């Protein structure tokens, strides 16, 4: 799904969030029709159960942000006040009360990283990939080394393809001068790990 789609035409928004001043990331899935923030935390079994301050701030700030940006006015695809999650949260004055935060739910029974590792990036990527394919994240057989090699291979292949086709960017920004040491590589020479 393209990143520039407006929120009012999607059901879920995926956001990676850095927690605290640590080098630690979680994936949050904002389920707009349920007023729910699902937290996919690869260290949740080792952390206290209260959501980090960043998640709590998001839950409180999100309704105001959506309201101030006219999100709830876009009812072509969804009649927001008629949804069960929004009932009882409306007023005559503003249509939707900004002071009622989104619910936060820590998703359980998902793969967990070792407490002494710095692998949260791989877990966040895997969670997002699995969920974006419409699947559920299960806590069975997650091999971090294999996932890291797989993502490295995918990124390398993507970089080679862009270099071979002369692309410097995926957006409309003016191209920057490139210092390229990547030679044109035959696609059959690329090894994919599965």
UniProtKB/TrEMBL annotation:
The UniProt GO MF terms for this protein read: cysteine-type peptidase activity
Q: Name one Pfam family in it.
A: Peptidase_C48
Q: Where is the Ubiquitin-like protease family profile domain?
A: 1-131
A biological process from GO? proteolysis
Per its UniProt record, what InterPro entries does this chain match?
Answer: Papain-like_cys_pep_sf, Peptidase_C48_C
Which keywords describe this protein according to UniProt? Answer: Hydrolase, Protease
Q: Which SUPFAM superfamilies match?
A: Cysteine proteinases
* Cleaved signal peptide residues: none
Family (UniProt):
Belongs to the peptidase C48 family.
Protein name (Swiss-Prot/TrEMBL): Ubiquitin-like protease family profile domain-containing protein
Whose protein is this, by species? Capsicum annuum
